[in-house]
Task: structure prediction
Amino acid sequence: MCNNHGLCRKEELRLIRLQLGLHDIPLDQCQSVTFNLEGCFSHLSSGLMRFQKLVLAFPGHLPKRELHKLESDIRDLLVNIMEEMDTQGITTSDIPALTLPKDTSTFQEKAALVLILSDLVDFMRDIHHLLV
Result:
């Protein structure tokens, strides 16, 4: 984003996030001090469902092979988490349908995908740190 479009400042990226309705997925209930098993699993599963839907919302900006692999990896992790939730007797909650802006430009779609993938990396890194 910075090199190609000059969007280097956090404020600019924050505005794009707001415009596209992208927001952070909380994992506060997964932290050791405030750990809540049901809340943590709920955040993990809803976060992964959201990322899965977001990645699939912009299919034309990733090669099909990479898109399929990414979606498959997210789905596999989600299935594992949902199986563990079932084992623990935790019910899953549906996430609200995604409402993305209608008339987005190609630039906005590419920016959204960059932000989504960046958020996904951060989300996975956070999960890793919480579980280790």
Summary: Residues 106-131 form the longest helix (26 residues). DSSP finds five helices and no strands in the chain. The helical segments are 2-5, 10-20, 37-57, 64-88, 106-131. Residues 50 and 95 are 7 Å apart (CA to CA).
